[in-house]
Amino acid sequence: MNSPLSGGDIFGGAFAGGAQRIDVKKIVAQSAVETHFQPLVSIKSQAIVGLEALARGIHDFDGRLILPSTLFRLATAEAATAELDALCRHRALENFADLRRQYPDLLLFLNFYTPAFGAPPFGGERIVAQLPEDLAKHNLPSGSVALEIDETKFESAAALQELANAAKESGFLLAMIGLGAAQSNLERVSLCQPDLLKIDQSLVAGLEEQEHRQETFRALVQLARRNGALAVAQGIESQEQAIVALELGADLLQGFYFARPQNLSALDFDAMSERIQIVADRYKAHMLAKINARKGRHRSYNVILNSILAELSRVQVEKFDACLSELIALYPSIECAYVLDEAGRQVSETICNRQYHRPLSKSSIFHPPPRGADHSLQEYFYLLLDVELNKFTTQPYVSLSTGNLCSTISTLFRDAHNNRMFVLCIDVTAKAN
After folding, report:
1. What's this model's pTM, rounded to 2 decimal places?
2. What DSSP state is assigned to residue 266?
3. Which residues lie across from 393 on neighbouring strands?
């Protein structure tokens, strides 16, 4: 249970003083729990997809709210976790039923307090089996609920899989939370085959500024894709984070930027929708600007390619090196250029721009490939020919010629003397992509 409200109206720990001491058993007996909801939104659909239920205890001394971390810590000490967990779920379903009458397409994201399951044989599936009956009391279908499971709380993979299987058999959606946290076990994703993967807010923090976080985020999105799951970015606190998360492939967003957890009476769907629209408009403008910039770069690449091709097609193979050496100096965005024959063998030397090529020791892995090198397994060769494209551009990769991040652009041409087919390859610095 995450994303607590800020401010002085919430206890982050138990007070030792007699009057203010938190009595968990009394809270359970009096059903003194309030449900707060936080939205999960789809920017591309411009919709509020669902709400995560987050429990808050109500202190009998002054009515202030108590964080679930405090509640369950004390409940564990008093052997009351199962009762408290059941109460939190009951309150969440009760409040959500009221909401769903007004918003019939909403999903409820429901947490479990995993230690409440008890010792093996596993209690999680027993709780899941009870849920349809609880839902029926509120006229809610199983498909309206996504059960959130924190795999890091399961020492046993078997217990985790039992719960995942029970959830699916009962018709619930399954959401795995905490992906990207230090202790998360990614192997368990394929074990559970969840419907949603929630990428932890500890990774999302600083996402707009730190490339290593972006690459990890991108990898988790791809993991979700391969397992048929939607990727949810948790902890979105700004427009910038939202835009970056979307660009990296997030399907759904959740965080303070759209709304802090609020009780039923305080939920403002109009304000949430306004934030969604703001991000949608900005994301569209951002992507259009990137697309237009990319189009401009590729137009300039076409000019470069056509200029080089015009010269290469006039000379014989023996003159390719001299021709490339003369031309490459005119184009600072090119790291190096070389020519392959129709079998993928390099028929020229690798001609490097001086600003990118640094002499390295012969034992280094980074060195320009020599004449005669075999490029037939490189995608810029075989995809160009197999798919019969006029031009092919790779995704950025680390060049073995220079050690820099680059993209290779390849295109076919024929020489004017004997009409032999060749492939011109130019490595373009990734900074220019």
Report:
1. 0.83
2. G
3. 409
